[in-house]
Amino acid sequence: MRLKFHGLETALPEDGGPLIYAFWHSQLAMMPWVQLRPPSVIPISQSKDGEWAAKLFSKLGADTVRGSTSRGGGMALRGLVRAANDGKDLAITPDGPRGPAETVQVGAIWLARLSGRPLLPVAFACRPSFRSGSWDRLIVPVPFSRGVFEYGELLSVPREADETSIEQARIELGNRIAALTDQARQRLVT
Fold first, then answer.
1. DSSP secondary structure letter of residue 29
2. Residue 137 pLDDT exceeds 90
3. Which residues contact 55 (CB under 8 A, 6 or more apart)?
4. Which of 4, 22, 57, 145 is the most buried (most CB within 10 A)?
5. Residue 151: pLDDT band with limits 50, 70, 90
6. Which pTM was predicted?
7. Measured between alpha carbons, how far is residue 80 from residues 40, 130, 145, 187 in Å?
8. In whole angstroms, how far apart are CA 184 and each of 27, 97, 150, 177?
9. Which structural domain, as residue segments, surrounds residue 114?
10. What are the pLDDT digits (tens) for 87-135?
């Protein structure tokens, strides 16, 4: 697969500290290649599918924390904050593990608030590809396809953020990932 990367010049925090990659669950298959400074730490559900994903991501150089919003979420959140405090980047799917697809759940914003780390919206598109029949319609690239990664601007959530600020950040993160996804798709047309 031929890959191109756009927006790298604004992708890393000025202080060089850790960040949180945020991308749609449908783009999860390609996200091991998005890391700018491996290893990243990724939350993986405690399901059987999660066990398979944890092994795959481990082989690709990412560390995992087990747990999701449906089971073990508090434990996963603590593990992710600890990893960020240890200087590791994090990677999350803010619409996972069950959706609704392409709708940011508040957990992503809480992670940024508690860890003090900025969110980096990221998107991936490829052509040709097919989409699975799962809830997220996972993108599966076809061999020899072209792929594009788009990195957006960092989004910080202050530790003192109130409910209104958290909701605004949730909406903003979703808008940014959606816009980057459209941008990545457009690059494949030209």
1. G
2. yes
3. none
4. 22
5. very high
6. 0.90
7. 10, 32, 33, 33
8. 12, 23, 6, 10
9. 2-189
10. 999 999 999 777 899 999 999 999 999 999 999 999 999 999 999 999 9
Average the pLDDT over 20-43 and give the result. 84
Say how far apart CA 128 and CA 151 lie, in whole Å: 21
More confidently predicted of 62 and 121: 121
How far CA 145 is from CA of 13, 42, 57, 95, 120, in Å, comes to 31, 26, 22, 26, 25
Using CA atoms in the order 106, 175, 153, 148, what is the torsion angle rounded to 10 degrees? 110
Nearest to 156 by CA among 107, 182, 121: 121
Q: Which residue type, as a one-letter code, is found at position 94?
A: P
Spatial neighbors of 110 by CB under 8 A, at least 6 apart, are 77, 166
Helices and strands, counts by H and E, the chain: 4, 7
Centre a 10 Å sphere on the Cβ of residue 25 and count the other Cβ atoms it contains.
21
Per-residue pLDDT band at 73 (split at 50, 70, 90) = low
Domain count, the chain: 1
Instruction: Give whole-number Cα distances, 97 to 53, 119, 135, 147, 190, in Å.
Output: 12, 18, 10, 24, 33
Give just the sign of the alpha carbon dihedral 187, 170, 24, 113.
positive
Across the chain, the runs of DSSP E, i.e. the strands, are 2-6, 20-22, 40-44, 63-66, 89-92, 119-131, 139-151
